[in-house]
Amino acid sequence: MHAMVLNAIGTPLVWTELPDRQPGPGEIRVKVGACGVCRTDLHVVDGELAHPHVPIIPGHEIVGRIEAVGTGVDDHRPGERVGIPWLGHTCGICPYCRSAHENLCDDPLFTGYTRDGGYATSVIADARFAFPLGEDGDDVSLAPLLCAGLIGWRSLVMAGEARKIGLYGFGAAAHIIAQVARWQDRSVFAFTSPGDTTTQDFALGLGAVWAGGSNEAPPEPLDAAIIFAPVGSLIPAALKAVRKGGRVVCAGIHMSDIPSFPYALLWEERQVMSVANLTRQDGIDFLGLAPKIGIVTQTTAYPLRDANRALDDLRTGRFDGAAVLVP
Fold first, then answer.
1. Model's pTM, two decimal places?
2. Strands 164-168 and 187-192
3. Which of 46, 150, 188, 303 has the most CB atoms around it within 10 Å of its CB?
4. What is the pLDDT of residue 290?
């Protein structure tokens, strides 16, 4: 197998030939058809997440076909197309796992962070955390659903019954969840970097009723806001934009420091919440619904060897939608 490997934090990934790996008990080996490039991958590569296992193969938006199954795997078969997400393993015994909150597991493994991921020609995965994808859609278009879609979905659910929703940071996740929100007959207000009219036009083309800079106020109070951009200063801005009783959901795994802000922005029962990882039920719910919605992902494909260029393009915002690596 071949992979793009992170050998040391803050260094470029290295094209590496590795021995073929065999699945252990409860595991599957998947031939990678496509792997999305997520902002969390940047956080891993740049050392913004603590205690990564290095060397590590990044990537957790994986679509591929099962090549081999380990002992004890009864619900997957060779040739089946599956998706492998960020949450790669849970202990099953901690209080969170036993109370339907496995996303908060005390002893988890995360694909592309604490276990090898999908910037490779094949990957070993816990069979319990592989979602059947069926045959509709191509691998590249499906890959962003495995994190941008799933985390966006969990964030949207946490926003509750909000009808007017602000999306701060209109990248891979927001461009998917805007489509879900519109399908649910919600109004989407898109916030981008100030002056980024290209992305604002992209958002309007996906059905947003308004698009502007993150330094602007929306034309009317929002019921909720979801912050996808890893920028802590957006929290006070979003609190200012939501109505009394409104909710601000922070969707990222990493965010810059939140500046101090007057209590008046939080008062009147406004809420600030964070989203942590995902559950398998999130995957079942969202991936079952996605074909009915008819989500169209905008993707830019890169050869696997060009993973460093894809990461740099993501870092500098050189494309709309999502980047996807193709072995």
1. 0.94
2. parallel
3. 150
4. 95
Give the model's pLDDT for residue 52. Answer: 80
pLDDT tens across 12-48, in order? 999 999 999 999 999 999 999 999 999 999 999 999 9
